[in-house]
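Sharing a chain and its predicted structure for anyone who wants a worked example. Both blocks are below, sequence first, tokens second.
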Amino acid sequence: MRHAYAALIAAAAVIVVFREITRRLVGPDAAAVPWSDAGALAAVPALAAGAAVWAMLVVASASRAGIDALEQLGLRGLSAASRARANGAAWAVVGVMAVHFTAEAFEVLPGGHAAVAVVLGAALGVGTFRLHRHAIEHDAYRTFNLVAMLLAAGCLASMSLTPTGAWWTRNFSTLGTSDDMAAACFNIGMLVAGAGMAALSPALTRPFAETHFGARRGGLTAMRALIAVIGIALMGVGLVPIDGATELHNVAAGAAAIAFGVLCLGAHLWVRRMPRALVVASYAAVAVEMIAAVLYDGLGLINLTVFEVIAFTLVFAWLITLAAVTHAHHDAQDAVTGRHIVGVLRTRSERATTTRPTRPTRIGARSPRRSRRLATFHEVRRALPRGGADEPPEALAAV
């Protein structure tokens, strides 16, 4: 599954690189230039970039068995830190390119779009690097990380191709309305990412089945159902463009938002000993979404595109946090004491494989050597006269 998602992300990278090179060569009207003029020059570096992205993501998201197999083939330097750096670099590029394709929207800010690109790229790169290194050993996180990246990559490919102009002044779903390759990239990204989210709902919540989390009866089922609803709703957003059945498209988008809100507010009730980091993330996500709704619908300070970007970001950030917090071994928390349990588990295993120290001798217990000394002492006492005189035993016998 991860290889397929990595291949789709690589395909989106090919589209973005190809489009950028042709645009640099012939200007904004690159789509109208024959293939023989600019396409041939852009095809080779675009395909090379796609192959590099695929290889990087496959290695960054590989399992321990996969890394061992690659090392047996002679590939070195595949440590957790290097793989986390590769993942962070990929997300940093996503952030920079997203600002690049919407540069006009950020020109009113100090420093313009360049400053925003640096800040956003650095934040995404550093944050995802730390997160990936933290939870790299766990399948659910690595797979969902690629699901989120596929959605972002599909949007970037659509941004690079879209003929809709300043689409961000209307809404995010405008990217899927042009009935061409740009719309296909957006809608397919939504569809496949939503399907991946729905399919991963059991894996994302499986750790809560452990008794120390204290999941209530039906709690896991509710969480899995809500995550699946979010995924299916995203599929609906991709299947039904906003310029088609607008009401149905809005119902799908609204269902995703409502399901996410219920999930954040109910998760702490369904799982009694939820990790504290996830509880904080849940309430923070609800607060940010409510503030964004007020800014958009009440005050009109942000447009629908910004609101939708915030909503999508919160959903995927919360689910990635869920996967990382509940699956990370070295940061697992004891649900009762709130202390790290890794050291406890390690000492138990060490006690099982090491020899127990010899118990100290109790006070008053007689060792064989001490018993021999006592026996000799008693023999000497029997040999001495009771009266304290210093005569030999023969003299006492004569008396």
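Comments welcome. The mean pLDDT is 80.
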